[in-house]
Amino acid sequence: MPPFPSRPASPSGARHRFAALSLSVMLIGVLAGDALPAGSAPVLALLAGGGLFLYAAACLPDMSVKARSFVLLSAVLAAATALLAPQAAPAVLRRATAGAAFVAGLYASLGFLRDAAETSPLVRRCGLWLAAQPPGRRYVALASGAHLFGIILNFGVIPLLGAIVRSGVGDDDSPRGRLRLRRMMSAVHRGFSLILPWSPLTVSLAVVLTALPQLRWEHLAPWALGTAAGFMVIGWLADRTLRPPPDQRQQHWPTSGEPWTVLLPVVGLVILIFAVGGLWSALSGARLVVAVMTATPLIGCGWILVQMLAAAPSARVALSRTAQRMRGHGLRFFPGYCNEITLLSSAAFIGACISALVPADVVAATLRALPVPPSGLVVLAAWLVVACGQIGMNPVLSVTLLTGTLPPPEVMGVHPVALAVALTGAWSLTAASSPFSAAPMVTATMAGTTAGTVGRRWNGPYTLAALIFLSGWVLLVDRLAG
User: Fold this and answer.
1) For residues 326 and 300, what is the distance between their CA atoms, to the nearest angstrom?
2) What is the rounded CA–CA span in Å between residue 387 and residue 271?
3) How far apart are CA 344 and CA 347, in angstroms?
4) pLDDT-derived band of residue 254, with 50, 70 and 90 as boundaries?
5) Could you tell me the end-to-end alpha-carbon distance of the chain, in angstroms, rounded to an integer?
6) Closest Cα to residue 465, out of 241, 234, 193?
7) Which residue, 189, 217, 321, 389, is the most exposed by fewest CB within 10 angstroms?
8) What is the rounded distance in angstroms from the CA atom of residue 408 to the CA atom of residue 367?
């Protein structure tokens, strides 16, 4: 998933205001689609798809060349679907548009939490405590902290903790200093990537759960958390192999001055997000993943209100300032998301269209001819996602293509959970290792090196070991879940 834009758009233009309104309409359509009666679903789907289309049209002049090329390819594939599969085209295009809007809605809803976190003194205090841990506890502390903050901040956790790490290392360009920077930045990077196998507030889960509608997040989560735990152990073992010689180790470690309890409010915030989402799911009947998405703007708004109450002379003033900031968030940030939302939603749309154009009987015959059992095909799919990431293919596209061209899990003879575990785990490892992914790029910028160094040199052995673990884990999940 690409990082949030560092520069919000200017709110002055009418086109940007229209873009902000269109994305707001799309977000309402996505979030209300699961909660309202089934009879309103077509109207809400039209609202979500229409809002996304108008948003893309309004933002077209601001898009990068790559984003515009994805929009063009989406239009070409939509026309090809209508011409080559006229009977199935309406259903295919509705499904593709719904998937694209769902991914875009997730991205937009997460921005409210990130906005609140950026101005919270608590977040920086927690980051300072994590970065000040001694080497024996540092990897687990930083990776766990990045994992926790990543649920709230998404990609924003890497520059946040990365800046704290850089300030702690300072100008130490000695071999020990460079190694320390590598280990700390790798811990932050890998810790963030561990949210991708399981968190419902990630594009990886949005794409996989959309592609596997028979699977619910609460059924996947325990197994996917096992993936994250295994990757954490492998990352810690990889970190232990990079310890400096005894004569170069630092004997005295500065502390942040904060107690460990500084982390408790952030832990409570994450629990609150899932608790509110779970309550809304129980009351409305919405899928849990959509309910959690619905909770994030509300909790982000509440978090900002708490900050305003601490600084404002009265509750009335705090409420007024919070309302102004929420309005300003939409006007400033929603238009600024154009490249990221366009790339993500277009990739989901493109994958769905290509999958519909590939003859299902050809795919089935090819799979039957392969001397590989069904569970082996699922493992192979995980390796393919990581391999495609090394040549620049976004997992949104590769995962959508794979889930669209492979027969349904039940037809293949594998459990849907096993396929989801394989794809989300592979997505996580792609985010850790691909020099074309946003996470290695952001990490490389903070560390003063290249994305290739971060992805392949720093994380290459970790990725290979984790892929081997993932292969065995997927086979075990298929056996146990079934």
Assistant:
1) 9
2) 35
3) 5
4) low
5) 31
6) 234
7) 321
8) 13
- Name residues whose C-beta falls within 8 Å of residue 315's C-beta, 6 or more positions apart in sequence: 309
Taking the C-alpha atoms of residue 290 and residue 277, their distance in angstroms, rounded to an integer, is 8
pLDDT digits (tens, 9 = 90+) for 255-291: 656 788 888 988 999 999 999 999 999 998 888 889 9
Which two three-digit tokens encode residue 23?
A: 């994305």
Torsion over CA: 206, 208, 212, 215 (sign): negative
Cα–Cα distance, 462 to 464 (Å, whole number):
6
Tokens 């794409």 label which residue?
Answer: 207
Angle at the Cα of 204 (from 422 to 418), degrees rounded to 5? 20
Take residue 108 and report the two structure tokens written for it.
Answer: 């937009």
This prediction's pTM: 0.86
Q: Is the dihedral of CA 351, 356, 358, 364 positive or negative?
A: positive
User: For residues 171, 172, 174 and 177, what is the CA-based torsion angle, rounded to 10 degrees?
Assistant: -130
Q: CB neighbours (10 Å) of residue 174? A: 11
Within 8 A by CB and 6+ apart from 268, the residues are: none
Helix boundaries (H) for 154-241: 157-169, 175-193, 203-211, 217-240
Q: Within 10 A of 246 (CB to CB), how many other CB atoms are there?
A: 6
* Residue among 380, 393, 289 at smallest CA distance from 347: 393
* Euclidean distance between CA atoms 466 and 172, whole angstroms: 31
Stretch 404-414: mean pLDDT: 86
Question: What is the enclosing helix (H) or strand (E) of 285?
Answer: none
Burial 438-476 (b: 16+ CB within 10 A, else e): bbbbbbbbbbebebebbbbebbeebbebbbebbbebbbe
Maximum mean pLDDT: which of 84-93, 388-397, 423-432, 448-457: 423-432
Tokens, residue 176: 């020990």
- In angstroms, rounded to a whole number, what is the distance separating the alpha carbons of residues 57 and 15? 10
Token pair for residue 389?
């990431």
Residue 101, both tokens: 């809007």
pLDDT tens track for 39-81: 788 899 999 999 999 999 999 999 999 899 999 999 999 999 9
The two three-digit tokens of residue 67, written as one number: 């984003």
- What's the pLDDT score for residue 3? 44
